[in-house]
Design brief:
This protein is of the alpha+beta class and 138 residues long. The protein has three helices and six strands.
C-alpha cells in the first residue's frame, strides 16, 4: 500500500474527485492548506479568453498574507497560497493510475499546479471490524 498526498489548486477539486472515482479511489481526506513553492506566494490565474492577447494569458494577482502574518507582527509579511491537500491510501497496483489521473486533471502548465508525494504504508486497520491491510483501506 502507498499513501499519496496531492497538493492541488482549490478550483480543481471537483474534477480531481471525479477523476479519482473513475480510477476506483473513493476514500480520501481533503484538507484546506496554505503554502508556497517556487512562485513565492504569488498567485497566478488564467485570464478570461475574451481579454486582448497582449496579456499573454496570465495575470499576476497581489499575494494575500497568511492568517499567521495578519495575526502577528512580522518584519516582512509572508504570503501563502491557499490549496487543497488530498490524502489517499491505495493498493500498490493502483498507484500509477491514481498519479496519472491527478497529473492529467491538475496540469495547467502554469506555476502553482501542485505536487504529488508517494509514501509507503506499513499497515492499516479498520477500527470497526479489526480488518487489516489493503481490505481495511477501501
Amino acid at each position: 500500500m502507498k499513501e499519496i498526498w496531492a497538493v492541488i489548486r482549490r478550483n480543481k477539486l471537483p474534477d480531481t474527485k471525479k477523476a479519482l472515482e473513475e480510477t476506483g479511489s473513493f476514500a480520501m481526506s481533503i484538507h484546506s492548506v496554505e503554502g508556497r513553492g517556487r512562485q513565492g506566494g504569488v498567485i497566478f490565474r488564467e485570464i478570461d479568453p475574451y481579454v486582448p492577447e497582449h496579456y499573454e494569458g496570465v495575470v499576476r494577482v497581489k499575494p494575500t498574507p497568511s492568517r499567521y502574518a495578519l495575526a502577528h507582527t512580522l518584519t516582512k509579511a509572508v504570503t501563502y497560497v491557499p490549496k487543497r491537500l488530498l490524502v489517499l491510501v491505495v493498493p500498490d497496483e493502483a498507484v500509477r493510475d491514481v498519479i496519472d489521473a491527478l497529473v492529467r486533471v491538475n496540469r495547467t502548465g502554469h506555476p502553482g499546479d501542485g505536487k504529488v508525494f508517494v509514501m509507503p504504508v506499513e499497515d492499516a486497520v479498520r477500527i470497526r471490524t479489526g480488518e487489516r491491510g489493503t481490505g481495511a483501506v477501501q
